[in-house]
Design goal:
Largest sheet: 10 strands, mixed
Oligomer: single chain
Number of domains: 4
Number of strands: 23
């Protein structure tokens, strides 16, 4: 990354500036304090070769020759490379402009400009925003040159930067290199040092900066807006320069791409690395998809269980935990058995027997009070309420009225309830003792006389069991039906979570993790016929205890499916794309990301429209390394850096450089990148041209 200022005056404009004296010392301090890598000297319609050479010989940065020019209605800085040919051209141009005596208003025509500035096509032209009219038409007038828009503030920079039809903006100082200036805004270093532009390139050579300035994405007002570079040292002792942003690694098979990735993994902290290995996106597509489905199922199923929590708690408490309603016999069967026993009793019983003359023999037992257990539970809930400090503190802070009276009333009620329960429990104990004594007496009489006890039945309890069994069956019949619980959007797809009955006993066993027991008979006999309570009894008899969190899954199956936006099930390739997008989203939290040949099972449309933008998005916060042989991905990715792997003399070598700079280097050798890039993407220029002909032939119809 380089920091540049291509608009510095070392001589005043006699028509608009107050007189000032050039100071090399001031310019040296400005360059040092601003940490500039390159500057351009651009005096108005003037180029002083002797002064320029003095500056070039003394400054510790690159210095480029230039001129601020009046061009028709434009104010434009013309900057050239620092060589003898261009400095001579600027000298002659300066003399021509002096001869034309332009004054403070006139500007030369574009045709005159092209005549005077012979090599203008290789120049950088910076048109000042606000001083240049019809700035959007610059590209049509001087399209062969690199045209930029010079702005005077960060606000204007952002305004131009965001307009797609505007050239690249740059912010330069327009400084006067002097110690004393009547306009202090032109030589105050503390203010001027924030009016420069950062350029994403490897060095401050003219062509490196020139190529970078062609792309808005390579220009920024702060270093944070751009990507820097750093060296990776590999095992063979060589350094490879890479970008902190998006790196594209190319090369033939066996050229050392995998070796390079292994070196990266050795150098970085494992906790800061996210890797999508070669073929992993295709192989792990189902695993990633299952994970997302499970997340969606858990979310929707949790809400659904919450909606029916009271009903499921009742079923568990009364049919599983206490088993009080899970009868072995039906209501009718139980009643028939009682009547049969009663008829048998009357046949065998002699009313004149001694046993029937004893009152206690015919006495019925006390019925237990079911309300006590319910009140016990409510008392525990009240205790939890009164003991919750967080609740009362929250109430005190967030309500206007005092909560102490409310708390006192609840505590008073709790004490009354405790006293009542205490008395009722004592009565229950007495009843239990009486029932026990009565049972003992009746047993003795039966054993001594041979007269059986009269059959007993708690018709209320029996009917209660019958009633709740029927209600539970009705509830289960209502909910054990196909229903969509929810739809969640993930990337461009959606996951639909469905509740549905089990179709096969294997689905039931898998969902409930039951392997070694056959449930085929009860499944067919009861579940398929919607006799769910009877099915529950069979399951409890077979496996014993049923955990509370497994109760719902005994009756219902939960499935999720991945669909397109049109509700069509996704294809195999779409699954791979979906899983890859999710993996890259997860990768955004890591400092380093490796993506090795992600194109497996993906079509070029997906690569162009989805994958490339996602990789670029991840590289905004992470250092990303992408390996590919796919020409669509490679050619359209527009990485910050290109890394070319080669195998030479049984050793791996690497050349790298800014992709938009069109050069790659290993530190000793620098070459154009086009040949290696096209060789890797298209198997050479001949193949590239041949494919182009084929495409054109297909279009020619």
């Amino acid at each position: 990354m380089e920091k540049i200022d291509f608009h510095i005056h070392t001589q005043p404009d006699i028509f608009k500036d107050n007189e000032f004296k050039f100071s090399l010392d001031w310019l040296e301090r400005y360059v040092k304090q601003s940490r500039l890598d390159a500057i351009a000297v651009t005096n108005h319609n003037l180029f002083d070769i002797d002064q320029f050479n003095e500056i070039d010989n003394n400054l510790n940065c690159k210095v480029f020759p230039g001129m601020e020019l009046s061009l028709e209605n434009y104010h434009v800085q013309v900057i050239y490379d620092n060589d003898k040919i261009h400095k001579n051209e600027l000298m002659h141009a300066s003399q021509r402009l002096q001869d034309l005596n332009l004054g403070d208003r006139r500007g030369i025509s574009i045709s005159q400009f092209k005549e005077i500035f012979v090599d203008w096509k290789n120049s950088i032209l910076v048109f000042e925003f606000g001083k240049s009219n019809n700035i959007k038409n610059i590209s049509t007038e001087l399209s062969d040159a690199l045209c930029l828009v010079g702005v005077s503030s960060p606000h204007k920079f952002n305004k131009v930067y965001l307009q797609k039809d505007m050239p690249t903006p740059v912010l330069f100082s327009d400084a006067h290199a002097t110690k004393n200036n009547s306009d202090v805004t032109r030589n105050n270093i503390n203010k001027l040092m924030f009016k420069q532009t950062f350029v994403e390139c490897d060095d401050s050579r003219y062509m490196s900066i020139y190529n970078a300035l062609k792309n808005k994405s390579c220009v920024g007002l702060t270093s944070n807006m751009l990507k820097d570079s750093f060296n990776i040292k590999i095992d063979n002792g060589k350094n490879v320069k890479v970008s902190t942003g998006l790196n594209l690694i190319i090369g033939n098979r066996g050229s050392g791409k995998t070796y390079f990735l292994k070196n990266i993994k050795k150098l970085v902290d494992e906790s800061e690395l996210f890797e999508i290995a070669q073929f992993q996106s295709a192989e792990k597509a189902n695993d990633i998809l299952d994970t997302e489905k499970t997340k969606a199922i858990n979310t929707e199923f949790k809400q659904w269980k919450s909606d029916y929590k009271d009903q499921w708690d009742f079923i568990y408490d009364n049919f599983i935990k206490n088993d009080q309603f899970l009868m072995k016999e039906s209501f009718v069967e139980k009643l028939d058995n009682y009547l049969d026993n009663l008829r048998s009793y009357h046949k065998r019983n002699n009313n004149n027997s001694i046993a029937n003359k004893i009152v206690l023999f015919k006495e019925t037992k006390f019925v237990p009070n079911d309300l006590i257990s319910i009140l016990d539970d409510k008392l525990r809930q009240i205790n939890n309420l009164t003991n919750s400090l967080e609740l009362w503190n929250y109430m005190e802070i967030n309500t206007n009225n005092s909560v102490y009276k409310l708390k006192e009333d609840i505590v008073h009620f709790k004490l009354l309830l405790e006293e009542k329960l205490k008395n009722d429990k004592l009565k229950e104990k007495i009843k239990e003792k009486v029932n026990s004594i009565l049972q003992s007496i009746q047993n003795v009489i039966t054993s001594q006389t041979g007269v059986p006890l009269i059959p007993k039945i708690n018709i209320l309890s029996l009917y209660k069991r019958y009633y709740f069994t029927k209600k539970v069956n009705m509830f289960l019949n209502k909910i054990v039906n196909k229903k969509t619980l929810g739809v969640s959007n993930v990337d461009i797809y959606k996951i639909k979570v469905n509740l549905l009955p089990y179709e096969k006993v294997t689905e039931f066993k898998k969902s409930c993790s039951l392997k070694n027991i056959s449930f085929q008979e009860p499944f067919n006999k009861f579940y398929k016929k919607k006799q769910y309570v009877q099915f529950l009894k069979e399951i409890k008899t077979s496996i014993g205890d049923i955990p509370r969190d497994s109760l719902e899954k005994i009756f219902i199956n939960i499935k999720a499916e991945l669909l397109t936006s049109d509700d069509i099930p996704v294809s195999g390739g779409e699954k791979v794309g979906f899983s890859l997008m999710l993996a890259l989203e997860e990768a955004k939290d890591k400092q380093y990301v490796i993506v090795d040949e992600p194109e497996a099972s993906l079509d070029n449309k997906f690569i162009k429209e989805r994958l490339i933008s996602k990789l670029q998005e991840v590289s905004e916060k992470s250092t990303v390394f992408v390996v590919t042989h796919n020409s669509t991905l490679g050619s359209l990715l527009c990485p910050n850096y290109l890394i070319v792997a080669k195998r030479e003399h049984n050793d791996y070598s690497y050349l790298s450089g800014g992709f938009k700079q069109k050069k790659i280097s290993n530190g000793n050798l620098e070459i154009p990148s086009d040949k290696d890039f096209i060789n890797a993407m298209e198997a050479g220029f001949d193949t590239y041209r041949e494919k182009g002909k084929i495409y054109e032939n297909l279009r020619d119809h």
